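User: I'm writing a tutorial on reading structure tokens. Could you give me a worked example: one chain, its sequence, then its tokens, then a sentence or two explaining what the tokens reveal?
Assistant: Sure. Here is the example chain.
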Amino acid sequence: MKIWRVLLLPVLLLLVGTATVQPAQAAVVAKKVWVELREQGGFAGLDDRVIVYTDGCARLSHRTGPAVHTCLTRTETRALRSSLKHLRLGRTETQPPGADFIKYTITYRGHRVSRYTLPSTWKPVVRRLEKILHK
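And here are its predicted structure tokens:
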């Protein structure tokens, strides 16, 4: 009977240890996206993306190289917020004939819109996000 206690104790400790690890892993919360810009196409074959999360941090990725994580400064966050106040997404634009056009896709407030020509309300947002992407 004592031998079962000796063998059973390590097994129970192992089971209890794995049970306490799983909830900690489940506590990882997905970040909420604030705004996203993706630039694709053009002669150089762009595929750049900047995703800014609500916590002020961003994920930057280019066609070549690994994704980079960074956080915006207070000044960058304020400027982006100001530009986003004036953003009017509108409708997705159809692809014009030709091959060298850059497709800009903005995702904001649950809406995703793609354009090949930048409307006036898009220009400040795109420029700020490009600046973050290339810093």
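What the tokens reveal: DSSP finds three helices and six strands in the chain. Confidence is low (pLDDT under 50) at residues 18-24.
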